[in-house]
Amino acid sequence: MTEKKAHKVTLIPGDGIGPEVTEAVVRILETTGIKFEWERFAAGAEAFEKHKEYIPKELYESIERNKLALKGPVTTPVGGGFPSINVTLRKKFELYANFRPIKNLPGLETRYPNVDLVIIRENTEDLYVGLEHEVVPGVVESLKVITAKASTRIAQFAFDYARKANRKKIHAIHKANIMKLSDGLFLKCAREVAKGFPEITYGEHIVDNTCMQLVMNPYQYDMLLLGNLYGDIVSDLCAAFVGGLGLVPGANLGVETAIFEAVHGSAPDIAGKDIANPTALLQSAVLMLRHIDEEEAADKVQEALEKVYTEKKTLTRDVGGSSGTKAFADAVVKAIEEAA
């Protein structure tokens, strides 16, 4: 039997708790028996200290070469400082689809049990193009950019995924009652794509009403299709249904390249204390395994993770336990090994 080649993955541990949760996830992934070659790079403030660049040229080259990256949280300054590393990488590699599944973990009690949502967010334009300037002192103008190309592409991605995953319903979320041209174009493109998928129910909701409807009854939704800004906000809101950003995965997908990342912050206040929860990055790594067609390994990791949550013996503090990052990872590793 020919031995499978190792998967080459660009690894960005990030800062704050990033290196701790990344180390835990790498150890768990390597327990599956799948071989990886990790190319590690700093990004953000740490990279600037070393290389005088927030994203080193070598990091760009590694992602370009491998087409695959796993990324821990990187601090983004508020109201100044360097641009978001996340947004920069998404633009650079045309990672046009942000994929965020929202699903409860077994054994973890929340106010909303049995949630099963998929958030599909356009990832390259809208207000996140960063086109803003000061017109006169005290007046800042920001430009929202919506194109037919990007809107059609993300709608096609959402409907293709729905068909493949046997999802039954998609709602396009908008503010076209006010933003008649920009959000109107987004809806026009979504409606056109929907015509090719008659088996999938298509609906439209205004974004503010959607937020209220989600809090009242998230079960009325199956998949949500959103532009960049609304998607950013609503996906975080939905994460609260299942326990918060420390638990949910994230994937940024393009035609050739994919970056899988934890969507929570870098939590510098608890960095180095062995108390961070690696679940979000681990579930992102499960998505990565499925992306590279390592379904068996993905199932192993997911089942082991769910076993640890069901048993409740080695959970981290943020989900009601008392264990540390390393002990939690040890428990997941043990569950994988026992299932072998």
TrEMBL record:
Its cofactor is Mn(2+); Mg(2+). Gene3D superfamilies: Isopropylmalate Dehydrogenase. SUPFAM superfamilies: Isocitrate/Isopropylmalate dehydrogenase-like. Residues 8-332 form the Isopropylmalate dehydrogenase-like domain. GO terms for molecular function: isocitrate dehydrogenase (NAD+) activity; magnesium ion binding; NAD binding. It is an enzyme of class 1 (oxidoreductase). One of its GO terms (biological process) is isocitrate metabolic process. Keywords: Magnesium, Metal-binding, NAD, Oxidoreductase, Transit peptide. Belongs to the isocitrate and isopropylmalate dehydrogenases family. It comes from Alloacidobacterium dinghuense. PROSITE patterns: IDH_IMDH (PS00470). This is Isocitrate dehydrogenase (NAD(+)). The lineage of its organism: Bacteria, Pseudomonadati, Acidobacteriota, Terriglobia, Terriglobales. InterPro entries: IsoCit/isopropylmalate_DH_CS (IPR019818), Isocitrate_DH_NAD (IPR004434), IsoPropMal-DH-like_dom (IPR024084). Its EC number is 1.1.1.41.
